[in-house]
Amino acid sequence: MIQDRRVIHIGARTEVIAQDIILMQAEINYTLLTLTSGPQIVVAYHLGKLQERLLDHQTFIRPNRNTIINLNFVTNYDEECISINDRKIQISRRRKETISLNIENFNKTKAQYLKFEKNKVN
């Protein structure tokens, strides 16, 4: 997992570490955040607003208009959907090519990061 300990503001006086977010799902004008710590949080921001706050976090992608996912938690991927644990998230037709490139670039970066960490330990 690529480590990034920066926080994002998600409402009122609440901040979360970006890499603790597994996925975000739109619920009308609210967003449901699923976190690694277990609880789900409902925030009073729409998904677009939270996406703006994640622009400099390259581990997040938006496969469809209802979901943003953290690539660190993807367990399986094909052209139609992305799996995170037992959830399957559909990839919209218009975003398939972009998502494929993002995942490919992420995997390359992750491999380089793991190689660097391995060399650092030795």
The chain-level structural class is alpha+beta
Q: Can you count the beta strands? A: 10
Mean pLDDT: 88
Task: Write the CATH architecture name.
Answer: Beta Barrel
Helix content: 25-40%
Provide the number of structural domains: 1
- CATH class placement: Mainly Beta
β-strand amount: 35-45%
Q: Briefly note the CATH topology name.
A: OB fold (Dihydrolipoamide Acetyltransferase, E2P)
Flag low-confidence runs: none
Structure write-up:
- The chain has two helices and ten strands; from the N terminus they run E-E-E-E-E-H-E-E-E-E-E-H.
- With 122 residues, it is α+β, with helices and mostly antiparallel strands.
- It has a single domain (7-121), classed as LytTr DNA-binding domain (OB fold (Dihydrolipoamide Acetyltransferase, E2P), Beta Barrel).
- The strands form three sheets. The protein has a five-stranded antiparallel sheet. Strands 8-9-10 form a three-stranded antiparallel sheet, with no helix packed on it. The protein has a two-stranded antiparallel ribbon with strand order 1-2.
- Strand 1 (7-11) and strand 2 (14-17) form a beta hairpin.
- The radius of gyration is 15 Å and the shape is globular.
How do the strands and helices of this protein lay out in sequence?
Layout (H helix, E strand, L loop, with lengths): L6 E5 L2 E4 L3 E7 L2 E6 L4 E4 L3 H7 L6 E5 L2 E4 L5 E2 L3 E4 L2 E4 L5 H26 L1
Short characterization:
The chain is of the alpha+beta class and 122 residues long. It is built from two helices and ten strands. It has a single domain, classed as Beta Barrel (OB fold (Dihydrolipoamide Acetyltransferase, E2P)), CATH 2.40.50.1020.
